[in-house]
Amino acid sequence: MSRHRQPTFTLTTGPVNCYPEVLQGLARPVLYDYDPVFQETYERVSRKLCKVMATDEPPLILQGEPVLGLEAAAASAVSGEDVALNLVSGVYGEGYGFWLQRYCKELLEIRVPFNEAIDPASVEKMLAERPDIKVVALCHHDTPSGTINPVRQIGEIVARSGAIFIVDAVSSFGGMNVLPDDVKADIFVTGPNKCLGCPPGLSLLSVSEAAWRKIESNSTAPSASILSLSDWKTAYKASEPFPFTPSVAEINGLEAAVDRYLEEGEHAVWARHALTAKACRAGAKAMGVRLWPASEDIASPTTTSVTLPEGVTDAALRGKMRDRYGVMISSGRGETHDKLVRIGHMGPTAEPLYAIVALTALGSALSELTGKAYDIGAAVTAAMEVITKAE
Asked: What is the tens place of the pLDDT at every residue in 101-126?
């Protein structure tokens, strides 16, 4: 038997807790995938996703959490003749280079410190110097840093170059204003397990006509494979077969999430995420905690990252917050591990009052660990001022 009790509040950057409607959707009967009711459900959900993602064609739904979609995008769109450019501002952006390197002829990189964002001018300069670049990859919200990149400006630049633009929007889509066509993404990868409030289990990919041409001309693009995009191109149609068994329960949960999102309205959802993060940042600064991003202009609306004080470890702080106060938050990853901790504002926890919960637990735990009195009252006051001014 575990010596740990379940946390009272899971305020992480993923997995996130599910919306109640999603849990109800997951509890629906699991039908045979070729039952006409499920085939109709799958097509209906796919077409609803067109509304959510503002696309003409339904996105692909791959049957695995978004790391599957990200790897599949590289495997399908990148050939052994390609020069690829990876834009690195954090751990996940850096990691994408491993997949690009596996498939491309040459991998180029623009890298900035992991508390900064990519400068669009540097991308424009690189593309001018290397017109042979065929693929550009960007992580919009590099979650282990809690920073966002200027994806629209970069998308405009990449579009003018004619290169294929792969965008990782896993932890930004659904929580802020980022849509595939708007940012000129050729392959836009996300999932419902962050801001849409679903469990991890599906990838969603919007693929442009240019990307499909690139994939279809790539002799090494996988087929009859878990990594294949082509196999799923027409699977959304009730009349077409599935390449393999889809996750029936996950599709039911996804439909509940999509219905909830459409009912609340995208702008209301984005505003709720942004307000929660803004309140959390204000409270953190008021109690004397330093934000990780070099500028608040690049701080994510779905994650608040704070720098660990000297002498405080990630394990000690997160353990204290969880075991004493029942609040579970996220650690850094890779290069940011033991340098910061992260409070997630995604899906059901993108509610402003959860910022108060996180701040009180954070300030109390830091006070215990450091012997310094962090001003929790100031933090709550600052956060509440942000919340009340928004009403």
From this structure: 999 999 999 999 999 999 999 999 99
What pLDDT, in 10s, does the model give residues 125-159? Answer: 999 999 999 999 999 999 999 999 999 999 999 99
Q: How far is CA 19 from the centre of its chain?
A: 17
Q: Which fold has domain 9-16+266-389?
A: Aspartate Aminotransferase, domain 1 (3.90.1150)
Exposure class string for 115-125: b at 16+ Cβ within 10 A, else e: bbbbbbeebbe
What was the pLDDT predicted at 1? 52
Assess contact for 379 and 360: CB atoms under 8 A.
Answer: yes
Contact criterion met (CB below 8 Å) for 308 and 338: yes
Angle at 71 between CA 154 and CA 15, to 5 degrees: 90
Q: Is 194 helix (H, G, I), strand (E, B) or coil?
A: coil
Please give the class, per CATH, of domain 20-263: alpha beta
Reported as a pLDDT band with limits 50, 70 and 90, residue 3 is confident
Place of tokens 């995420």: 273
Rounded distance between C-alpha atoms, residue 332 and residue 338, angstroms: 6
Largest CA distance in the chain: 66
Report the C-alpha gap between 162 and 157 in whole angstroms.
Answer: 9
DSSP 81: T
pLDDT at position 222 is: 97
